[in-house]
Amino acid sequence: LPGVDEVRVVVTAERVARQLVAVASGKGGVGKSTLAANLAIALAKAGRRVGLVDADIYGPSQPRLMQVEGTRPTANDKVLDPVPTPYGVPLLSMGQLVDPGRALAWRGPMAAGALGQLVEADWGATDTLVLDLPPGTGDVQLTMVQKYKAAGAVIVSTPQDLALIDATRAIDLFDKAGVPIIGLVENMAGYVCPHCGESSDPFGNGGAEAAAARLNIPFLGRIPLTIAIRTASDAGEPPAAGNGADAAAFHAIAARVDA
Ligand code: ADP
Where do the annotations place ATP binding (predicted)? Predict the structure, then answer.
């Protein structure tokens, strides 16, 4: 029989082997959490064993998106057990651990400490962890990506110039931290009026694809701005879990992330 220490070493090695895919954005409100939830679900549907870590201390929205609002994780010998969700993607969120109002004042090292509890939880056979990072490029994000070397980062932006400039800063942060950029996603691109059918571009169109080409990083795809995405998200039913019109866009992005 192996000694206790040997068992610990094996467990640690297994944890390190898990792939961490960070989802980031230059600023809030561009759909980073929406993409993280749908990417996790789409990867799970494609056969990966996926867990979701909500590290957005400023606005942890994954419990609501994944329909487990109010459920707190249990712990076994101080190691957290991820909360099962209806979508086959277990979840741990900062919002399940602390009052977000208090977390707002956290410095990078404190946030990294809390993130450690989420990442080093009992993820079992999970092979991929999708990490919903806080928006922006502050020391919180830097501490997180440096401590838990992500396998790669997916950057989300709207097509708007200002959002893209912020996204460029986020890309820079990952570059400096040595985290490869998996690619850029354009969200809220193109709105089709449900009444007249005419298409318009509230935040412009194609800006992210052009920016990706300029920055020499892969462009992963475009998610339209739709009422269905907003209402389904609010109801805790991420579109990628269903077969609606918007599911395909998320599945296409997941296939490129998986490639
Ligand atoms: P972030 O994580 O970047 O702050 P969220 O994912 O929380 O952004 O999205 C902000 C709001 O915009 C949410 O109400 C969400 O439902 C909505 N939203 C995100 N993407 C879309 C989209 N493509 N179409 C419609 N609403 C969207």
Answer: 26-33
- Burial (CB count <10 Å: 0-12, 13-18, 19+), residue 151: middle
| Cα within 13 Å of Cα(4), Cβ side | 0
Mean pLDDT within 89-110: 82
What would the pLDDT profile of 211-247 be if each residue is shown by its tens digit?
999 999 999 999 999 999 999 999 999 999 999 889 9
Q: By alpha-carbon position, which residue is closest to atom 8 of ligand 1?
A: 31
Segments forming the whole domain that contains residue 78 = 19-258
33 vs 206 pLDDT, higher one = 33
Q: Which residues are annotated binding-site positions for ATP? A: 26-33
- Ligand 1 centroid–CA 32 distance in Å is 7
CA of 31 to the centre of ligand 1 (A): 4
d(Cα 217, Cα 257) in Å, to the nearest integer?
A: 13
Q: How many domains does the chain have?
A: 1
Identify the CATH number of the domain in which residue 157 sits: 3.40.50.300
User: Is 119 within a domain?
Assistant: yes
Q: Is the residue at 63 inside a domain?
A: yes
Residue nearest ligand 1's atom 6 by CA: 31
Assess if residue 205 is contained within a domain. Answer: yes
Residue 103 has pLDDT above 90, yes or no: no
